[in-house]
Amino acid sequence: MKVSAFTFIKNGQLLGYPFLESIQSILPIVDEFVINVGESEDDTLKLISLINSPKIRIIESKWSDKMKDRGYVYGQQKMIAQFNCTGDWLFYIEGDEVYHEKDLDKIHQNMTLHLKNPNVEALVFDFYHFYGNANSYLQSPGWYRSEARIIKGSIRSYAPDGLFWLVLESNKTGRYPFAKKVGVHCYHYGWVRSEAQMNLKSQKVQKYWDKTHSRIDYSQIDQSIIKEFFGEHPSVIIDWLPIQKGVYLADPNYKTNSKEKKHLLKIKLESLLGLDLSKKHYKLSK
Fold first, then answer.
1. CA-CA distance, 228 to 268, in Å (whole number)?
2. Per-residue pLDDT tens for 12-65?
């Protein structure tokens, strides 16, 4: 069994991504790691090269600023990396995602277990979306709770954006992949970086959605969806994390908008009915 990992990154250093920690977190369980590095204004390319692993293969690309339709440039860059993978399994990881060393064996075992199963096309992880600091994460159907991050290399798949895949059943129709849950978490740290870096990121990338930047203020969120994290972070990310104590405190005067009110209603329904009403870009295989 051959396992390919892949990612794409641009201005990773400038925008505060823990991209080096991300790459290193899964490097032990993959056979090759394809990294598509967009033309950057910082030392992203140099820093990745300094990892100096024979598993890493770097592709250099230039993003099209003319592509402004719903973030599709992210799908383009994801697929440039994916189409250069040669493994039986393709493990996609984003530059702010990290996996715990204690979970690597279980991830690899699941790939081995389902390699020959034609009813399993992808593998799904649960997510910790850390927010504001390393002690807090978000629990809401408005923040995807699980997502497919590993897909078989033999599947005709493509990414309409960076987040998920569609499997082509014909040249005209696509569907979500049939998947199994791995039973471990992906640790997502994008909203732990400083507000200044998050706002700079927004200024740089909103154009790909044909939008203009609006100032991001971490405190403008509903406190009820912020939960305290009692677990242990992956060792590779410890030095990157800000040193803060306690749960992140939102603005006590913040007023929820109509979309957030719908999410709060879903939370109540989930509690009553024992359901998960968050969006899923996969179908669980029987």
1. 19
2. 999 999 999 999 999 999 999 999 999 999 999 999 999 989 999 999 999 998
Residue indicated by tokens 């972070």: 233
- Concatenate the DSSP letters of all residues of 71-96 into one string: THHHHHHHHHHHTT--SSEEEE--TT
Residues 181/162/85/96 CA torsion (nearest 10 deg): -80
CA atoms of 26 and 125, how far apart (whole Å): 14
Task: Answer yes or no: are the C-beta atoms of 229 and 134 closer than 8 Å.
Answer: yes
How far is Cα 117 from Cα 133, in angstroms, rounded to an integer?
Answer: 40
pLDDT digits (tens, 9 = 90+) for 139-173: 999 999 999 999 999 999 999 887 899 999 888 88
CATH of the domain at 246: 3.90.550
The DSSP code for 169 is S
Q: What is the pLDDT of residues 80-112, one digit of tens each?
A: 999 999 999 999 999 999 999 999 999 999 999
Range of the domain at 106: 1-286
Q: How many structural domains compose the chain?
A: 1
Nearest CA to 21 out of 192, 163, 234, 193 is that of 234
| CA 223 to mean position of chain CA atoms | 23
Residue whose C-alpha is closest to residue 14's, from 34, 44, 37: 44
Six token digits for residue 79 = 């697929």
